[in-house]
Each structure stands twice: as C-alpha cells, then as structure tokens.
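Changelog-adjacent note: as of this version, every example in the card shows the full chain rather than a window. The one below runs 226 residues end to end.
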Amino acid sequence: MIRKYIVIAFLAIFCLTSVLFMVARAPPGSQYDPWLDYNEDGYIGIDDIFATARSFGTEGDSTKNVSVTNWIDPTIPREIDQYPVPLKWYIYSAPFIVSKNLLPHPSEIGLGPGVYETDILVHNPSGTREVNITKKIVVAFRENEPFQQPYMIGNLTLFPDAAFRIDSKEITEFIPWYGNGTVKGFVCIITTYAYLDVIAFYTVSDLPYNVTSSIESLTITPKPWG
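Full-length structure tokens:
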C-alpha cells in the first residue's frame, strides 16, 4: 500500500513539473547554463528536470572535478599574440628511405636492390596565417640495436601559401654516422596547424644504368601531439 502511494506521489510530481515547465519557461535572453544540461544536448528540457528529480534527497561532495590542461612545449617557437592559449600541437610523420649504394638481395635493411631517395614537400595553404614549424629526424633501429635520440634539424616560419622541401641530402646531413649506407626512419614536422599539405615522394633507381624504375607518393596526415 505504501509503495502504491509513493508511485502515485511520484507521478503527481512529474505531471506538476511538466505543467510548470510548459508554463514557466525561461524569459527571452536568459543565459544557458551547461551545468544544468544533464544529458548535454545543448537544451535545458524536461529530461534534465526529470534526472534532477530522481536524485532528490541525495547528498555528497558538491565539488565538480574538472581537469584543465594548459601545457605548452617551450622548445617550439611561437608568437604569443598570434595564437590562443592553450595551443594544440600536431605532428606529421613522413617515413623516409635513403641509400647511396645499390643494395644486394637480400639486404639487411629489408629493401630490394636499388638506390632509394626521399623528397618531402610541405605547403602552407593558408592565405593569411604564418605557421611555425619544428623539424626532427627519428631513425628506425632494430630491436636489439641501441636507441638513439631524435635529431633536431631546425625551426622555420612558413609564410602564407609558401612551401619548402626536405630531400635525401638534408636528411643524411643530420645523421653523423650515415656514411654511404642505408637509413630508414621518419621526418617529423611539429606545428600548431593541422591543415598543411605534406606529401612524400619515393624514388628507386637502378644504379648501373642510371634509370629510375619507380616513383611513388604518400600524403601525410597530422596526428595530435604532446
């Protein structure tokens, strides 16, 4: 019997709340409060009121846990007045393969016979925004080889609708132990702009006859970084 009265009382409260909601809407110009939007649909409606009514009488800590991240990498140059804070960083990781000699078969680096070259093109398609960029090289090693830190290869400002390239010569210049061997890895471009055009071109040539046998391209997409 008591449960029956509780159900009737709950239904009565729900109906009364619905009527009040239809009659007493917020006046025009009222400020939307996201803390009151229980289901986070961008609208304070009867579902939010119903969820609150179901929690009527409960108690607890009123502190709302909110984590705010405001981290900025100090190693990357930026114009404080140009970008908002906090910044969101992106990384474009373009794989590269560079060799100077004709590789035997099978090779220790997992490549067929040929001379390999990599050329990476970077374009800023924005018509108004300058983009600050940090470049680094990450060499790929075998699991049993000692790990080496990435090679930082400089910073630059890419002006609106400007482009630059990173070729095999520049890549190998920053790897002191390269010599005349073969190297694989990634050229990483770090920036706050997620709309750069980054395309890598790969060329394979037959050294004895100086004939290019293959040219392929790969579009590099950005990933969140930091």
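Structural remarks: The helical segments are 2-23, 46-54, 168-173.
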